[in-house]
Amino acid sequence: MFNNTEWLVQVREDVIDPDREIVDPHHHLWPRPFLSYDLEELWSDTEDGHNVTQTIFMECGSSYRDDGPERFRPIGETEFIAAAAARSATDPGKATIAGFIGHADLRHANVDDILDAHIAASNGLFRGIRHAGAHDPDSATFAIPGRAPAGLYRDLDFQRGVARLGERGFTYDTWNYHHQILDFADLAAAVPGTTMILDHFGTPLGVGPYEGKRDDNFAKWKDDIAAVAENPNVFAKIGGLAMPDNGFGWNTRALPPTSDEFVEAQAPYYHHAIACFGPERCMFESNFPVDRLSISYRTLWNGLKKIAAGYSEKEKTAMFSGTARKVYKLSPATPKGK
Prior knowledge:
By secondary structure, the chain is an alpha/beta fold. It has one domain (21-328): Alpha-Beta Barrel (TIM Barrel), CATH 3.20.20. Helices cover 36% and strands 12% of the residues. The chain is built from ten helices and eight strands. α3 runs parallel beside α4, α6 (181-190) packs parallel to α7 and α7 (214-229) packs parallel to α8 (259-277). The longest helix has 19 residues, at 259-277. The protein is globular, with a radius of gyration of 19 Å. It starts with a helix and ends in a 10-residue tail after the last helix. The model has no long low-confidence stretch (mean pLDDT 95). Belongs to the metallo-dependent hydrolases superfamily.
């Protein structure tokens, strides 16, 4: 699925601001031969010119156990990532997987059992849970369909599970669609003691019934992002807009986009989110290898650096590394080559 390197290298730019430290707070891995994006492929991207020192793995249904109780099967993913992270730490010249966000069904009455199992299997990497809320009546037609039930955020058992994360010092990440942002805002208000992270700008859709409606959707999205940002426990991952379902169509072109094309198309989303949340609550993300379907890692981070050019040095540091370290409680990276 992700072996599109020959297509991506048709656009090859000089790296902008190569010394700037980056903590990439959102990527996935799938072991061979499933989708063939493992540590080596991650390193091929993170070592392609930008100074990526640490990363956070985000749950993606990878390497689940194929037997035992259903609710403990995600622990297989934790074991897989703990091993990958241990390998990543053996090479001080490359990015280290410094944290892990796992999956659990937060509606379960004994959610502590699964949290304890993640802790035991993660070798100190476990930072939180993503039980995504993405639901759309037409999602079966999307390239990456959301599988959450309707009304998940309003489920009282689910809310108790999200609250339990905060009580134990863990974060809650979510992925939902743009028309669900206000529902997520209600969840954040109902559970103010839990640090929550909205992934991918709330995924503005541009395909299926949303195709050709980008301007109208953007206007509504702006209002909804401003509303969710009023909750001080919510942080924003700003990135993940190059998925096919965002509708920019780059994955279908003969040539991938340049960083200037990326900025022209997507900068308004970034600047609005930063204005609403403030840089101290925003973190740039890659969402690789999913966004790799549309843009290379080198080009993506060049584009993000161009978007950040007008912000202060303190604000840049927050968005490229500081916010992620704060939210996910990461220790500073060991300087490369040390």
